Every structure is written in C-alpha cells, then in structure tokens.
Amino acid sequence: MSKNTAKKIINDPLKCADELFEGLVLAYDGKARRVGKRSIVMNDLRPDAPALLIGGGAGHEPIYHGLVGKGMGDGAAVGDIFAAPPPDIVLEATQAVNRGKGVLYLYGNYAGDIMNFDIGAEDAEDAGITVKTVIINDDVCSAPPNEKHKRRGVGGLVPIVKLAGAAATQVETLDELARIAQKAVDATRTVGVSTKPGSIPATGAPTFELADDVIGLGMGIHGEKGVGLIPMCTADELAVKMLDLLFGDDLPLSEGDEIVFFVNSLGSTHMMELLIMLRAARPILDARGIKIHQTIVDSIVTCQEMAGVSFSITKLDAELKALWDLPCESVGYTKL
C-alpha cells in the first residue's frame, strides 16, 4: 500500500456504499427500514401529510441518510460514494414516503443531484405523485451573492434539514413545507476550510492536494476550489477570516439577531480543535450583539478523513425559532 493511500477498515472498496447503508439501517434499531436498492424510510410517518425526502451521495456520513428520523427527513435516497442517487432510487424513495399530500425534495446544489432528482420527480409525477424541490446552496465561498443559484450545499444542510423536518411534522400542505424549507435555506450561510484531503475508498487516493503549510479557504466537501489558499495560521486568526466571509455576505446580521451556530468537523478534525475554534468565534459574535440560540459542535457533514472545519449560521425569526425548538431524533443529529 502506497504511503499516499488511505487505510480503511472495509471489505470490498467497490461495495462501501451498499455495506455502510446496511449498517445505517441497523443503527436505526427498527425505527427505519430499507426500501428497494438504497433508500431508507421511517416506519412511523404522520398520516395524510406532505413528505420530506432528502438525499445525496454516500461517503459524507452521517449526512444525508443519517438525518432521517423523528422531526427530520421522512426518508432518504442514497447514492454511491460521492455520487448522486440515480433516478430509480429517487423514485423508490419518493413512492415510499408519499402519503397522498406530495413530496418535497431537499438536497444540495450539485449538478448530478439536480439531474437525477429532476428525472426522479418526472417519474414520480408520471406515477401521480406531486413533487416540489428546494435546493440547498449555503456555501458563501462558491459564488458571489448575485449568483447564489451557483452556490454549493455544505454544512448548512444540517440546520436546514432540521427546520424542514420540524415543519413536516406540523404543516398540512406541500406548498407550506416548501415555503418553510426555502426560508431556512435563505436564512443559512456556511464557510469551510480544509487542511487535509479526504479520499475515495475505491482507490484510496486523496481527492485533492494541499501543502502542509497552507489552508484551503472556502473549499467544498469534496475539495472543490474555494476563495484561495492562506498560510497556516492559529485558530484565533482563522476564526476571524471565516466570520469575515460570513459577515460580508448578503445575510444581514444585526445586534439582537438570534442564530443557530454550527461548528462542524469535515471528518478527522478533533473535538479539541472544534472547541478551540468555537472559543475563538464566540467573542466575535458577542461583540456584534448576535445572540446564540443554540450551538452545535459535531462532525456531521464530512468527507472521509478530510481535515477541516466549517462554520454555519442560521438566522432565526419567530417562526423558525419555534420550529427549531421542536425535538428531533436521528442517527446523525438529535435535539431533545
């Protein structure tokens, strides 16, 4: 094995997506079931209600398929490692979560996901199921504010799915669920940095190259290009740079505003580092008079053994705050 090849405790590198999916279903302890090739659906679904279907490529666990549960996604369509779920898997998941009030698709802004979910939506419509789509595009570093439609979906998907999942337990129409999901997307921004790449299990090769003395500022969860490379620096210095990018975006944050603040590890960054980054970021937020309604510090949006951290801010109003405070439970994120 080459020194540049990642060591992973697996069986067949080409079967990782299927085998991790089988393990995921077991991790739900009977609260969710497998459907078809690679879809997971909650067993206890609110009857006669619009459904929330999430999904995306495997390899970023616990997202998306680990965010299925009470007050979260009703089901998920799962792709291969770093690949969008194919249309037939999207369709099987859509049919499984549908309870007669339509299905909302909620997923990240990547070309493969958009294409396959759109085809799945067409197939679902042919089968008599009404589908609406909301696309997550919270990454401020992947496009300027006037081109928000080009931005990637990254760490902000966690609070967005939580808010949409809460709404799915309350609303009666698909239009209302789509409205709230889009509102959550519009209220959420993320910036991420990377210090080391992850790898593709099939090859063990890194997804990108990054010198030891630099940090990739704004890199995506697959190693997509960000706003540039900066010299390796301290946590205090890095927190300032990251928050400057968030404050410089088109989401106005004023004194007295309340937010959910999510500090996320991209895979191998330890809790020690996340907490040090939180320590660095919190005084900056406090100095602006921004109120933290809840802090999340966890590893939820990942890219294998990729090292790095992302900050996500979700601005709450009265409606979103009430939805946030509802409990949720899933393998990837639980709020009591």
UniProtKB/TrEMBL annotation:
One of its GO terms (cellular component) is cytosol. The keyword Ribosomal protein does not apply. GO terms for biological process: glycerol catabolic process. One of its GO terms (molecular function) is glycerone kinase activity. The keyword Transferase applies. Residues 12-333 form the DhaK domain. Keywords: Kinase, Transferase. Pfam families: Dak1 (PF02733). InterPro entries: DhaK_dom, Dihydroxyacetone_Kinase. PANTHER family: TRIOKINASE/FMN CYCLASE, TRIOKINASE_FMN CYCLASE. This is Dihydroxyacetone kinase-like protein. It comes from Prosthecobacter fusiformis.
